[in-house]
């Protein structure tokens, strides 16, 4: 097994606060899909600090949840969020594994892969679909989003978030360049300011595999999985279900 390289080693401290906006915007659409899931444990794959885990718990109050998060910094945020909440604590299990190596239940009621798919190469995704297809209970699905751009493209540097906590402001910018077939290189800048003073700046690069709706359909079909869009197109959400 290859050693897991954590792309969030430096940026993980900002990820949880900066991704909260995505959940504010799309949480209701995700919850709508969750309500359609059959009984059974739900996996939050690449759970980050647990915004999705918390949404699963609120939406499905009796469901056991497995939250898989390999980044040590994000896994620490997740574990604290779970341990602090009397509802989450008895029914959320946190695994610090790479999803490709995680020990998943034989049968699952569903899985969320939010803002995650670009971390897996085509070959790794093929392994994932192969592994997940037989685990899906009847009616269960993997809910995945395909963040734009879904093909390699230049993305102009733009502000992505500005969060105020106490006297400090946490700012994030993102830009991207094509980095080969189905590949992007993201350039993120995270800045902490106190008044006019820049307290710290972190520049982080990471690679991301682009996945389009067509390629998702093509790569899941051999595993007898079918892809169904969910919610407004701008959410980029898809259910991946077993063919009936
Ligand atoms: C952009 S964050 C999204 C976090 C969370 N799903 C959300 O939407 O708030 C991507 C997450 O995927 C995790 N991740 C990356 N590679 C992974 C892998 N091979 N297995 C499981 N999780 C992975 C990262 O550690 C990170 O927490």
TrEMBL record:
Biological process per Gene Ontology, one example term: methylation
Keywords in alphabetical order: Methyltransferase, Transferase
Domain (Methyltransferase): residue spans on this chain: 42-139
Uppermost EC category: transferase
Top-level taxonomic group: Bacteria
Family annotation (InterPro entries): Methyltransf_25, SAM-dependent_MTases_sf
EC annotation from Swiss-Prot or TrEMBL: 2.1.-.-
GO terms of molecular function: methyltransferase activity
Signal peptide stretch: none
Name listed for the protein in its UniProt record: Class I SAM-dependent methyltransferase
UniProt source species: Nocardiopsis lambiniae
Lineage: Bacteria, Bacillati, Actinomycetota, Actinomycetes, Streptosporangiales
């Amino acid at each position: 097994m290859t050693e897991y390289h954590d792309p969030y080693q430096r940026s993980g401290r900002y990820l949880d606060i900066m991704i909260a906006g995505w959940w504010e915007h799309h949480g209701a659409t995700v919850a709508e899909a969750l309500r359609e899931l059959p009984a059974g444990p739900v996996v939050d794959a690449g759970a980050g600090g647990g915004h999705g885990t918390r949404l699963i718990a609120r939406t499905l109050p009796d469901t056991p949840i497995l939250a898989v998060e390999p980044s040590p910094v994000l896994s620490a945020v997740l574990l604290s969020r779970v341990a602090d909440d009397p509802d989450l604590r008895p029914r959320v299990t946190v695994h610090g594994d790479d999803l490709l190596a995680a020990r998943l239940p034989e049968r699952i009621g569903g899985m969320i892969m939010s803002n995650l798919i670009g971390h897996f190469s085509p070959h790794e995704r093929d392994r994932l679909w192969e592994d997940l297809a037989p685990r899906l209970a009847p009616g269960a699905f993997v809910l995945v989003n395909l963040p734009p751009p879904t093909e390699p493209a230049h993305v102009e540097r733009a502000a992505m978030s500005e969060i105020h906590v106490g006297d400090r402001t946490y700012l994030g910018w993102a830009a991207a360049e094509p980095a080969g077939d189905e590949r992007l290189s993201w350039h993120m800048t995270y800045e902490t300011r106190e008044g006019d003073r820049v307290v710290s700046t972190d520049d982080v690069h990471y690679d991301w595999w682009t996945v389009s709706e067509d390629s998702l359909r093509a790569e899941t079909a051999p595993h007898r999985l079918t892809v169904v869009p969910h919610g407004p197109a701008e959410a980029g959400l898809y259910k991946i279900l077993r063919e009936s």
